[in-house]
Amino acid sequence: MAKITESTRKEVTEIVYNFFAEECEVDKSRIDNNTNIIKDLDGDSLMFLEMIEIFKKKYNLDIELKVIGKYAVKHPVATIGQLIDMQLLIIERENRLLELDNKN
Amino acid sequence: MYKTAIIGEGKMGSGLFYYLQGFDLDLTWVCSCEADLGRIKKQFSKRINRSLEAGTISENKYHSLRQIVISQDPQVSKDCDLIIEAIPENIPLKKELFNRLDSLVQPACIFASNSSSINPSLIFPTSQRKNKVVGLHFFYPVALKNIVEFTVTPQTSSSALSAIEDFLGRIHRFYLTLDEKNSFILNKIFLDFQVEAIRIVDKGYCNYRQMDELIKTTLFPFGVFDFMDNVGIDTMLASIKNYTYGYPNKTFYDPLIIKLEALAAQGKLGFKTGEGFCKYPPEDIPLKEIPESGSITEHLRQTWISSVRRYTALSHIPVVDMDFALKEYYGLEKGPFENTIK
Questions:
Q1: What is the pTM assigned to this prediction?
Q2: A17 and A88 in contact (C-beta within 8 Å)?
Q3: CB-nearest partner of A73 from B14, B143, B222
Q4: Which CATH architecture has domain A6-98?
């Protein structure tokens, strides 16, 4: 299991903010962790999937999309902050993401 | 069959288009006249540029993706081997589209509809092509749900059937082959459950949010009312009317149909309008526990199992296939037949 450091969190946050600023054509300063992806940015599931592909490649992650799909159904993401937290969990746990639910 | 056109730019049309990009297909995307084509093209361009930059696609793939035609003119699909329509659930609209395409597109092309509630026979032309029409019902989000309901009509030829099976294999999608009597089987199974859930709410045992919470903590990863609000009250209503069309006894479905009609009349169309069965964003009111929740859960579980068994028997789908399909549909770890499959 990967260890999430403060620098990983900063890096992930930066990538997510830049991604949505470019994709949704909004100034980065208008995005914060409370920004609602659908309501404020008109985002969709395709953006979510593209982000996952980017992080899979960047951190060389071993995770199947269906694992993320199952996790996301139970833990829907509404805000940028929630999306960052989910990406960090994916980086940390990869294919063992669903074990979190089995523990709870 | 590798020249494929997707028609429609909604959630399903765009989801299909972006999913199919990952495979070795010659893709074309036909958007409606109302679509903002400039925005769609720009978004596509940004996405493939980002993918190249992030290294998630190769240079070769990038150049082949740049060749994709995105247009509002259905003429661009004239050489296609397969056309998948994903436009709104409206029979006259779909009929009009396919009649137009029938005269434009090469005769060997197979027509497929991604409809979630309308059988292919009701919308396709009665021309020479009637042996090349099928239903291909993908689920949202396309990239995450590995399941397709493949509906054949009595006229679908064996060559069209094999071509679609080959196509679905190429795009790595598991499928159930269904006749039109048993089409949309996964939604029909869930529909029985939804009706039973609303009956319990109507009897005053709990409210919609409490019921959803109970379902989420005991049965499925999502609640039924939240599900309907996300699909859209108007879409749900039209779909249920299509599913139950011709049923000899529809009274079982009345509680749900009546409620959906009332919500639609008030303009409460679900998530997209900020209110349907529930309000969005959800009200911050703590949920009280439901008395007798154990027996309600068990009743709902039995309702679901009985629908699953009934529809599996009617459709002659092997239990191992149905088990897999249901796990994909609901996002379940274990299917209902898990203990009986050897």
A1: 0.92
A2: no
A3: B222
A4: Orthogonal Bundle (1.10)
